TrEMBL record:
Main localisation: membrane
Swiss-Prot/TrEMBL GO biological process terms: protein secretion by the type II secretion system
Location of the GspL periplasmic domain: 207-356
UniProt key word Protein transport: yes
Protein name: Type II secretion system protein GspL
Membrane topology field: Single-pass membrane protein
Claim: Magnesium is one of the keywords in the record: no
Amino acid sequence: MTTLLFLPYGDRGYRWLALADDGAITEGEGMPALADTAVVAVAPAESVTLHWADLPARSPAQATAAARLLVAEASATPIAELHVAVGTEGEGERPIAVVGMGAMAGWLADLAVHGIDPLAVIPAPLLLPRPEEGYVRGIVGGAALVRSCTTGFADEARLTDLVVGDAPLATVERDALDATVAAAVAAPPLDLRQGPFARRRRIGIDWALIRRLALLGAGILALTLAIDLVRIAKYSFGADALEARAEALGRTGLARGETVTDVDRQLAERLSAVRGPGLGFSTTVAAVYAAVRATPGTELTALDFQPNGSLRIGVGAARESLPTDLKRALEAAGFTVTAGVFQSANGRVTGEMTVSRP
C-alpha cells in the first residue's frame, strides 16, 4: 500500500489518499496511521511554480544547471533562495518545479517530526493528466487543480479565467483521475526531492553477497595453496629422482659386490684408499717433481711412498748447496721436509729426504 499525503497550505490541513495494491483508493483528513506504509508527499500547488522547457538529457546535473539559469531569468527571487527540480514527463519539453528553499525544508522537517521520510514529493498539479491541448481541471486531496501541457496551478476563479481565456477547459472524471494519480505515484513525473533535499539512501549489508565473496576468497586461497603444494611435491619428487640417480651412479664407482649402505661415505673411503693417505701419492709426487725441475742440478735417485702418506726420496746433486735449495722449494710448496745426512763422493752429493704433509 502507498499513501499519498497532501501537505497543508493556509487553512487546509493534512489530507491523505491511500492506494491499495488491488487498486482500491481511500481518503481522509489529518495525519493517517502510516505503519509499514510507503508515503509520497504532495506539495500544494500554491507553493510550487511550474515551467516547461527543452533541457539537455545527458545528465541530471546538466539539466538542473540549465533549469536554474532559466529560472534565474524568470524569477525576481534570488536563485540561492529557490529550490529547482527537473522532471521527465513524456517526450519533448521537461517540467521544471520551483519552490522556496525554506518551504521545502519546512515540509521535510514537519514530516520528520511525525516519523515520515517520504519517498518523493510531487507538485499537486502533476497529479492531473497532461492534456494534448487546452486545460483540464480536477479535485485531488481536497485541492482544486488546473493544468495544461505547459502550466499547472491551483484552481482559483479569477486566476483560472485569466489564464485559460478562450481555451477549452475539461473536467477530469473520477475514474480517469484515480488512474492518473496511481500512475503518478508509481512513476512520479517530477520529484522535488533532488539536490540538497534528495532522500538519503540507507546503506544495507548484503549478507548474501558477503557470503559469496567469502566463498570466492576461500576458493582463491585454496587454489593458491594447492598450487604451492603441487610445486612442493614436484620439487620433492625431482629431488628424490636426482638423489636416486646420483646413488645409482655412485654404486658404479664401488667395488663389484660391495654392500651399499652409504654411497657418499663408501666412495670417500675408496677414493682415499686409491690415492693414499695424506695428500695422496699422485699429488705428493707431482709436487716433488715440480720442485726438482725448479732446482737445476738435482735429480731423484729413489722414490718410496710410505703407508702414513709421507714420501721418501733419494736426491743427487751437483753441488753442496743444491739439496738445501730443493728442501726450501718443497717447503715453499707447503710440505714438511726432513733431510737426512748427505755425502759427497766422486763429485756428487747424495742423500735422502722425507716429504710429508704438515
